[in-house]
């Protein structure tokens, strides 16, 4: 039997990159998915490619808005009758050194990553606790473990997601709801491949496995945490880094 047969998952930032890879794998494993994304056209196209309305729906969602996240989670109930898995993946970068970073750049990243994850966790938990079951998967980053130059905003937000996930896991465990986090390292994507060659080579030199990760390798870990394969795990943080910064 497929690992997610009969389950419904909501994925923020689901129209591209890691979010889309997670959606693709979830559908392969029997799930219905609702893709939340700030780009409604990209989300609609992704939902169509995943199989259309019978298995995938698209909802425009700004994760910094509690009401829009509420609309997103409710869309899962209206379309498919349940909300079993919530993947809080939406994110942005506004990199700059602390000396040159504008306050607006700091606030934007904190709002999308940290507040956005809080909104998603909170709204999903309200539904899941009534069902007495559910799995929430939050996307942190290796930057939240070690801190990266030019990312005081991003590193702070991603570290905050770890603390948020652990606190939420403690609050929700007795309701049958699990909350776990993933910390990806250097994952090959349009964004990372646009890095200057020097920056890419420096990061590669730090990876014992001597290669970047692929989006499907993050998706596989999300599948593990979303499925009953991890039924006795909550409040954990899994690194997908090729061994970087062990």
From TrEMBL:
It is an enzyme of class 1 (oxidoreductase). GO terms for molecular function: 3-oxoacyl-[acyl-carrier-protein] reductase (NADPH) activity. InterPro entries: KR_dom, NAD(P)-bd_dom_sf, Sc_DH/Rdtase_CS, SDR_fam. Coiled coil: none annotated. Residues 7-190 form the Ketoreductase domain. Keywords: Oxidoreductase. Its EC number is 1.1.1.100. It comes from the Bacteria. SUPFAM superfamilies: NAD(P)-binding Rossmann-fold domains. GO terms for biological process: fatty acid elongation. Belongs to the short-chain dehydrogenases/reductases (SDR) family. This is 3-oxoacyl-ACP reductase FabG. It comes from Streptomyces botrytidirepellens. The gene is fabG.
């Amino acid at each position: 039997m497929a690992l997610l047969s009969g389950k419904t998952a909501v994925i923020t930032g689901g129209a591209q990159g890691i979010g889309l890879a997670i959606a693709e794998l979830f559908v392969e494993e029997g799930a219905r998915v609702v893709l939340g994304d700030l780009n409604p056209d990209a989300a609609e196209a992704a939902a169509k490619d995943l199989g259309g309305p019978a298995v995938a729906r698209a909802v425009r969602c700004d994760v910094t808005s509690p009401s829009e996240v509420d609309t997103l989670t409710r869309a899962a109930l209206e379309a498919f009758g349940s909300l079993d898995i919530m993947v809080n993946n939406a994110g942005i970068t506004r990199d700059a050194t602390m000396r040159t970073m504008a306050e607006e750049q700091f606030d934007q990243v904190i709002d999308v990553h940290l507040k956005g994850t809080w909104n998603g966790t909170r709204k999903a938990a309200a539904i899941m606790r009534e069902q007495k079951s559910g799995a929430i998967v939050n996307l942190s980053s290796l930057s939240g473990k070690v801190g990266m130059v030019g990312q005081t905003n991003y590193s702070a937000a991603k570290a905050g997601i770890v603390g948020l996930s652990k606190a939420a896991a403690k609050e929700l465990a007795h309701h049958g709801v699990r909350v776990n986090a993933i910390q990806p390292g250097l994952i090959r994507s349009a964004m990372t491949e646009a890095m200057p060659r020097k920056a890419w080579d420096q990061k590669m030199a730090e990876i014992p496995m001597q290669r970047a990760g692929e989006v499907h390798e993050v998706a596989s870990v999300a599948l593990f945490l979303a499925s009953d394969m991890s039924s006795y795990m909550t409040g954990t943080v899994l690194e997908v880094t090729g061994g970087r910064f062990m």
